[in-house]
Design brief:
The structure holds two protein chains of two kinds. Chain A has ten helices and twelve strands. By secondary structure, chain A is an alpha/beta fold. The longest helix of chain A is centred in the middle third of the chain and has 19 residues, at about 145-165. Classes of the chains: A alpha/beta, B alpha/beta. The interface between A and B is medium-sized, with 17 and 13 residues.
Chain lengths: ~280, ~725
């Protein structure tokens, strides 16, 4: 399963280790090998390699237009890189349909909230369980037999997620009426409802106030802690990234300019230049 | 008499009552809690088993007789079980306000000397761990919600279910010990220790015995005919005596079901789903609900708006007569269902009839008369039942209102099934009180305190008024001292203040009379008690006239715009006031009138808001001037505070009573400005955020003069 030695750029580390706060980080779950992604003549990602280990919180940071979201789309299988391989549990991934990706245990949230505004919070989260429902159309229509049984089972899972994210009070509120911060939380809930092993979060804290950010950070840590979910996230808020993540990849103009623990990245000269700018004289 | 003996003999403690409930109605629901979106329920038999396992588990952990066990958490069945389990093994439960900040918790945990603490979740555990830096007598922490607890040091910490599991395993070994300790419980052993909210000074631990709890529960249940079929919603803080009496005392005495909401935010939805038959809320809850209803009615369509106001105006006169629920069983039998259906059918029938009748009138008047004559014939009241007269018409009209307005509204509020509702703690505004009563909700007032195990006076059905607090509760004797202070003696009178013999002696004399600290008098005609104010707050103005701040504040607070008011004037030549606006009500008004504001502070300082409040103050002044005894309390100058008074800043108690002295100290420059004749004053105040961090806000506040009425003595008016 693991393939640690092949990654030249990431710091070599043993197969599994225990972090300072007592979580066990396992072997490599997902590995990017020399990924290059082009849109016509534009190179979005240029020869990037890094890995994501089981149970860790992996952040991808970088200035605007650095190619972070493209990277996330490569991980989720939505974009097919022109060069390089994506290895999931050591196996090379073919180009897949989104539902196939979901079946592999990967779930994601979006930078611009992609929920069904007219549907209730509960229904929205239930859509996260669609992969686990396969009753026939007729059974669904009359809500009898298999469809009913399935709904009970899946509703139970969804209720656990609702309880976990403390959104009981808005269970039946249409999503369109919710404030932004709560919508983000509902989106996280929908992703969690799929019981992913790898969770991709695209700017989970964008546009939030300090309190909402704190709540969201708490939830991300709790998800990782309680379910052992591996999390890859893109975020702009440096404070949050440095506090949350175990390892950070820094991108700039489609290239990887840093990789390592938050402390290593913070002291990396390239990263400082990219973020603070550098005098060209 | 026989019943009292029975109570004293067989059911001398809460665990004894539990055993009785298991025997008599073991398969009836005792607790419900909404969890994962579904109401889960536990029967009395299951409850007893949960409690027993926990009790055995606590024994296995080494709990001693007389230990104090702090219980910190929101209303959940497990926390109620913990209280009973603790009592079952001879220890004393001490519920603590879950929203108290660390320092407050530290004081209580230190004062009661708790060896065991039972926490709801990680948040509470964190506070207890913080407290343990200074307090070292806490040996075990038991927590209920496992979430986020995995990384904690578990050498002195246990999961609730693990404790129960341990108890289950140790069943045969410890059963004898538990039975022995339970048998030792008498009518006089301490059942619970509750901390007062500490309106003045540090909170005091009030020890209540089984006698206090059981007798009070028994008397109050008989007073209101409460039976085993009631449903209550437990949502008030567990550390408050009222919740203990309702959710444990009365529930165990009658065997009714206690329902716990899913989370504090879902309280209103859960209330609606459960539809309690017996309900208790402080005036503030009713006030908030009424404000919400009014705001939403203002936003509704013309027809709904007109219907609502038409029927509400009508109900003010007729609700008391036709709307009140009869004394009856909580669970409707067939006969009552038929009756209800009949009532609704009548309501619909007469609505149709009225419309037809008015249409016919209109048709004929159109046929025969000119426009000016037609005006004369048009029914004055759009839905007036012209064929009937007097009380018959009122009765039918009220039924119609039931179908169109009152019923749906009660359903939305969750009050459809309420038979007995109580409010206490503070005076309730006459409009609010009238609103709920005219809807046909039997809302009553009671007067009580922790030291009396709640009940001192209660309003009997049919004798409910806004300005009195009712007649002495069963078994309570009341005496009024020369200076107007109220004293009482009852089976509910507390045992002592824990570790505080001086305070105990100050409050309770050897004959058992307890000073309430409130001043009041009995109305001669009705025999009802009327409360004026806290005895020590009642003072004298410089000219010798009576100063009763609460009386004035309550009058002010009855306006939906005004959330809180603090009146000053003791020993001064005039009264002045601080006012807190209600952000919901005033914010809605601002939105309606295109007044832009960014914050509470900005809205509070808006000249138009000041103008509205000034009108309110002047109206209040007029009404005060009519009362010859209190006419000196008219407010000459006032200001609107730039921040809401808050318990986190120490300005209020956790039960939201204003701490007058602290407010006066904190805003001293403002008081100086009020009396110094200034027009505005700059102030900087420290605020505490919910997470305990501190910050400061500053503002320049405008001070307004309010017109006062001339009074007989010829005091100068402005």
């Amino acid at each position: 399963m693991t393939n640690a030695a092949t990654d030249m750029n990431a710091a070599p580390s043993p197969d599994s280790y225990v972090t300072a706060d007592g979580r066990t980080i396992g072997g490599v779950v997902m590995e990017m090998k020399n990924i290059t992604l082009r849109f016509g003549g534009v190179v979005a990602i240029k020869d990037i390699s890094f890995d994501i280990r089981e149970g860790e919180i992996r952040a991808i940071i970088g200035p605007n237009g650095a190619g972070k979201s493209s990277m996330l789309n490569v991980i989720s299988g939505f974009y097919k890189p022109q060069e390089g391989d994506v290895l999931f549990h050591g196996e090379k991934r073919p180009l897949m349909k989104p539902y196939q990706v979901a079946q592999q245990g990967i779930a994601r949230t979006f930078q611009n909230i992609a929920l069904f505004d007219g549907m209730s919070v509960l229904d929205n989260i239930m859509t996260g369980r669609l992969n686990n429902m396969n009753a026939s159309l007729i059974s669904q229509a009359v809500w009898w037999g298999k469809a009913q049984k399935e709904e009970f089972e899946n509703r139970e899972k969804v209720e656990k997620v609702i309880d976990f994210l403390e959104i009981q009070a808005i269970r039946k509120t249409p999503v369109g009426r919710l404030p932004y911060g709560l919508k983000k939380r509902v989106e996280l809930a929908r992703a969690l409802a799929a019981e992913p092993t790898l969770l991709l979060l695209d700017e989970p804290m964008a546009g939030m106030n300090v309190e909402e950010k704190e709540d969201m950070s708490r939830f991300i840590l709790d998800v990782n802690d309680e379910f052992g979910t591996t999390i890859a996230l893109i975020e702009h808020d440096m404070g949050v990234v440095m506090d949350l993540s175990d390892r950070v990849v820094v991108m700039d103009y489609g290239k990887k300019i840093g990789d390592g623990t938050p402390d290593e990245v913070r002291n990396n000269q390239d990263v400082i230049d990219a973020y603070l700018g550098v005098a060209h004289d | 008499m026989a019943q009292e003996l029975a109570a004293a003999g067989a059911y001398a403690s809460i665990p004894a009552l539990l055993a009785r409930n298991v025997k008599e109605f073991g398969d009836r629901p005792a607790y419900r809690e909404k969890e994962f979106g579904i109401w889960q329920s536990w029967t009395w038999a299951e409850t007893a088993e949960e409690i027993q396992n926990l009790a055995l588990g606590l024994l296995a952990l080494g709990i001693n007789r007389g230990d104090h066990v702090a219980i910190i958490g929101r209303n959940r069945p497990a926390h109620y079980w913990a209280m009973v389990a603790v009592h079952k093994v001879g220890a004393v439960p001490v519920p603590v306000y879950q929203d108290s900040v660390t320092e407050e918790m530290e004081y209580v945990l230190d004062h009661c000397g708790a060896r065991f603490v039972i926490c709801g979740d990680q948040e509470q555990v964190d506070k207890v761990i913080e407290v343990q830096d200074t307090i070292h007598h806490i040996e075990h922490v038991v927590y209920f919600d496992k979430r986020g607890m995995r990384k904690y040091d578990h050498s002195h910490m246990n999961w609730y279910h693990d404790v129960q599991e341990e108890g289950r395993v140790a069943h045969s070994r410890l059963e004898g010990e538990m039975a022995a300790r339970e048998a030792e419980l008498t009518y006089d052993s301490a059942c619970v220790m509750l901390y007062t909210s500490g309106t003045t000074g540090k909170p005091k631990g009030v020890v209540l015995s089984n006698r206090n709890i059981v007798e009070s529960a028994k008397n109050s249940c008989e007073f209101d005919d409460l039976g085993g079929g009631e449903d209550v919603l437990a949502y008030l803080p567990m550390a408050w005596v009222g919740d203990f009496i309702f959710s444990i005392g009365q529930a165990y005495w009658t065997g009714f079901c206690v329902n716990c909401p899913e989370s504090p935010e879902t309280m209103m939805t859960d209330l609606r789903e459960i539809g309690p038959t017996y309900y208790f809320a402080p005036p503030r809850v009713f006030e908030t609900q009424l404000t919400n209803v009014m705001i939403r009615m203002n936003d509704s369509g013309d027809l709904k708006y007109a219907l609502f106001h038409h029927f509400m105006d009508f109900a003010k006169t007729a609700g008391e007569k036709y709307g009140m629920p009869k004394r009856r069983l909580a669970k409707p039998d067939l006969k009552r269902r038929v009756k209800t259906a009949w009532k609704y059918a009548m309501g619909i029938g007469f609505a149709v009839e009225t419309i037809v009748e008015n249409a016919i009138r209109l048709f004929f008047s159109k046929l025969r008369h000119g426009k000016n004559v037609r005006e004369h014939f048009k029914a004055k009241d759009p839905i007036l039942l012209n064929l009937y007269s007097g009380s018959v018409r009122d009765y039918f009209k009220y039924r119609m209102g039931d179908v169109l307005v009152f019923g749906p509204l009660k359903n939305t509020l969750g009050f459809s099934r309420v038979r007995v509702g109580y409010t206490a703690g503070e005076a309730i505004g006459p409009e609010i009180f009238e609103f709920y009563r005219s809807l046909g909700i039997n809302l009553k007032q009671l007067y009580g305190q922790t030291e009396a195990t709640v009940f001192i006076t209660v309003q009997p059905d049919g004798e409910v008024r806004n300005d009195t607090v009712g007649v002495p509760a069963p078994g309570v004797e009341i005496r009024i001292s020369d200076n107007g202070e109220i004293f009482y003696r009852s089976p509910g009178t507390f045992v002592e203040y824990y570790n505080n013999p001086e305070s105990t002696a100050d409050t309770k004399d050897p004959e058992g009379w307890v000073a309430t600290g409130d001043a009041g008098f009995f109305e001669e005609k009705s025999g009802h008690l009327r409360i004026i104010d806290r005895a020590k707050d009642v003072g004298k103005m410089a000219d010798g006239s009576l100063f009763a701040p609460k009386y004035v504040e309550n009058k002010l607070k009855f306006y939906p715009d005004i959330l809180e008011a603090v009146v000053f004037g003791n020993g001064r030549n005039m009264c002045t006031a601080f006012i807190n606006i209600d952000l919901t009500a005033v914010g809605n008004w601002a939105e309606r009138n295109n007044i832009a504001y960014a914050s509470y502070q900005e809205l509070a300082g808006h000249p138009e808001v000041l103008g509205t409040i000034q009108e309110h103050v002047e109206t209040v002044n007029k009404s005060i001037a009519e009362d010859s005894m209190l006419s000196g309390c008219q407010i000459h100058r006032f200001l609107i505070l730039h921040k809401e008074l808050d318990a986190d800043d120490g300005e209020m108690t956790r039960t939201r009573k204003v701490r007058r002295k602290i407010v006066a100290e904190k805003f001293a420059p403002l008081i100086d400005a009020l009396y110094g004749g200034k027009d505005e004053q700059y102030i900087e105040t420290e605020v505490t955020y919910e997470d305990g961090r501190k910050g400061s806000i500053s503002a320049t506040l405008n001070i307004r003069d309010a017109a006062v009425q001339d009074i007989k003595q010829g005091m100068a008016a402005e």
